[in-house]
Amino acid sequence: MEKMPYQVGLETIASQPAINALSSSDWQQALPTLRGGQVVLRELRASDAASLFALLTTEEVARFISPPPSTVEGFETFIGWTLRQRAAGSFACFAVTVAGYDTAIGIFQIRALEPGFETAEWGFAIGSDFWGTGVFADGAALVLDFAFGTLGVRRLEARAAVKNGRGNGALQKLGAVQECRLRKSFQKNGEYLDQVLYAMLDADWRGSRAIATAHALRVH
Ligand SMILES: CC(C)(COP(=O)(O)OP(=O)(O)OC[C@H]1O[C@@H](n2cnc3c(N)ncnc32)[C@H](O)[C@@H]1OP(=O)(O)O)[C@@H](O)C(=O)NCCC(=O)NCCS
Fold first, then answer.
1. Is the CB of residue 69 less than 8 Å from the CB of residue 55?
2. pTM (2 decimals)?
3. Nearest residue by C-alpha to atom 1 in ligand 1
4. CATH number for the domain including 200?
5. pLDDT of 29-78, one tens digit each?
6. 62 Cα to the center of ligand 1, angstroms
7. Spatial separation of the C-alpha atoms in residues 102 and 39, rounded to whole Å
8. Which of 166, 178, 197 most suits a substitution to test ligand 1, by most atoms within 8 Å of the C-beta?
9. Ligand 1 geometric centre to CA of 170 (Å)
10. How far is ligand 1, taken at its centre, from the CA of residue 21, in Å?
11. Nearest to 188 by CA among 67, 14, 106
């Protein structure tokens, strides 16, 4: 996770060969718009750069993630890179918006760790005004359905700095399993931090969806 959601030197790796260049899917042409109870996830646009810059570069948001772009123009470059990587079939990055508003308040991204997306890593960041509001859980459910259902992910990894209480709490709420501690695996402000490696399997996700559906049926 902490190599996500931002990557230093994006443009230098943008020219790498496409992981999935031999096959093409609808999502490679354009990401679908995903609608939840309170959020709408959609493809990023260059015009999202200003709001993402304002919301994701604050100290509390950026504290445990790789340094975000330091200018609006840097976010525009990042957004352009995400679109090219999506077209190449190796990456998907959704803008988080609150239903009824079009402003991007955060991002969810998924990157393939091997050809074909069977193993992937995801990351997320949301403006702190929206923490604890349910926006994360709502958006995460949409992204997990997209990852396991559309991309065909079998194993979805995430990394969270041990000190990142909300990041760990958010992943644990989703049922992500702590697999190990990655010692001194993430450098932030000159300090090497330990991270927790989390993983969710497609079977885990389908099981939790089935339980949720069963509960919903019982209530009615
Ligand atoms: C990660 C992030 C998207 C989660 O969104 P959020 O709205 O804060 O998440 P939620 O409130 O739904 O869930 C966080 C959970 O962690 C819990 N939590 C908060 N501080 C905690 C701590 N120190 N230790 C353990 N759990 C903690 C919260 O209580 C909450 O659980 P609850 O809903 O059962 O009360 C958001 O915090 C964020 O953008 N953080 C900055 C970016 C970042 O760190 N991204 C990488 C994450 S690995």
1. no
2. 0.90
3. 167
4. 3.40.630.30
5. 999 999 999 999 999 999 999 999 999 999 999 999 999 999 999 999 99
6. 13
7. 10
8. 166
9. 5
10. 36
11. 67
Domain count of the fold of the chain: 1
pLDDT digits (tens, 9 = 90+) for 123-142: 999 999 999 999 999 999 99
Q: Cα(59) to centroid of ligand 1, in Å? A: 15
Evaluate whether residue 163 is within a structural domain.
Answer: yes
Name residues contacting ligand 1 (CB within 6 A).
1, 61, 64-65, 124-126, 131-132, 136-137, 160, 164-170, 173
Nearest CA to ligand 1 atom 13: 170
CA nearest ligand 1 atom 11, residue: 132
First to last CA, the chain: 38
**What is the residue whose two structure tokens read 């069963």?**
214
- Look at residue 3 and tell me if it is in a domain: no
In a domain, 44, yes or no: yes
Give nearest CA residue, ligand 1 atom 41: 61
* Long-range contacts of 30-35, Cβ-Cβ distance < 8 Å, separation of 24 or more: 31/86, 31/92, 31/94, 32/146, 32/150, 34/94, 34/142, 34/143, 34/145, 34/146, 35/99, 35/142
64 by Cβ neighbours in 10 Å (0-12 / 13-18 / 19+) ranks as: buried
Decide if 164 is inside a domain: yes
Range of the domain at 90: 10-15+28-219
How many A from CA of 23 to the centre of ligand 1? Answer: 36
